[in-house]
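Question: Send over one sample?
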Amino acid sequence: MAIIVNRFRMSLLWTARFASLVADASPAGAPLAALGHVASYEPIFTGLLQAPATPITPAAGAPALVLPWRPQSTQWFWCRYLNANPIRKVKASFAFWRLVPFRRQGSPAPGLDATLPASLAGQPQLETMIAEAWFHPHMVSVAIHVTVTGAMSVADLAAAGLALRHDRVLRVPGDAALHKLDELGTRYLQAMYLEAVGEPNAGPLPPADPFSVVTVLQGDTAGAREVEPGGAVHRALDAVTAWDVDHLGALAAGRISGHADAGDGPLLLGHRRARAVWDPGRFERADQISLSCYHRNLLMGALQTEALLGFARVAQDEAAAGRRPKTIRDCEDPVLKRVIDLHAGNDETYRSSSLKRFIDEHPLRASVDALSARIWSPAQLPPAAPPPAPV
């Protein structure tokens, strides 16, 4: 029997950083100006902790906000990141200094849909397509999650993922045109930026380079669990992390965690801003809840690490311009320590080999080093590990 994939999830995350809300004088008319200062952030966070099912709208024209985690979920990433269990006991100031965001209540892109090309084998079909957004004091983020079902080979999985990422297969309500996923992600990111700062205060955003996670949620390996270098599973996972069907890197270079000899256990494979999860021990027994949680933890880890790195760059840019607002002064030290803890996998925060690789390969890593030097902190990132050598 061939390997069959019955269900997989694919999530892409776009982020954009900016400095306007953390300025000492918030821009006039910014709908989410309250997020940029601890005194105005605290009542929002505290109110949501006390009544998580009741969204809060900080100002006229602002989106309604909820906590960054889903109330019904385990919140494992956030519990570990904030070193708090139960999480309802977290102090609002503590959350602010660690840049905990708010999630937008309601999708920024309701009604998104897609039709996969009929030419794809395995009859992959779209099960769900959901968008969500988060607001940090200095960053906005948008994620689009796609769940696909069928009776697919691993090559079919890769073809379906690549079609969703690169082809014009997405539809928006009220628009007859077909769109690409990255085009829509960038469009919604810009819209969330305007929701945060207001159009009169908006400036150009840095180009968004999305982070992606693809996880097999249900399937059958027919006993062929070993991921062989150059084999079908390796090729498929490499395609949906390099986002190129013709790319094939060395398995050892792409492996982030898993058995060192490939083996038949779980494998997390990735490239600079992409991850793929292959865990037959779970997806063959349809342990989709566990795999869905792991998928989301990988995404939330990337979201928050991106926020920390982005803050380091915002602080660097502000210092270069001769500014050092109070919010930046308050957050610099805890942000630096969170980055270092995530990189080291310390018990004080969420532990993940993915985040260490994420930080080491990130173009803003140098901003963390600059932050440490600027505030004369003994806390420093170790030198970045060299990438695994191709074999």
About this structure: The radius of gyration is 21 Å. Residues 288-320 form the longest helix (33 residues).
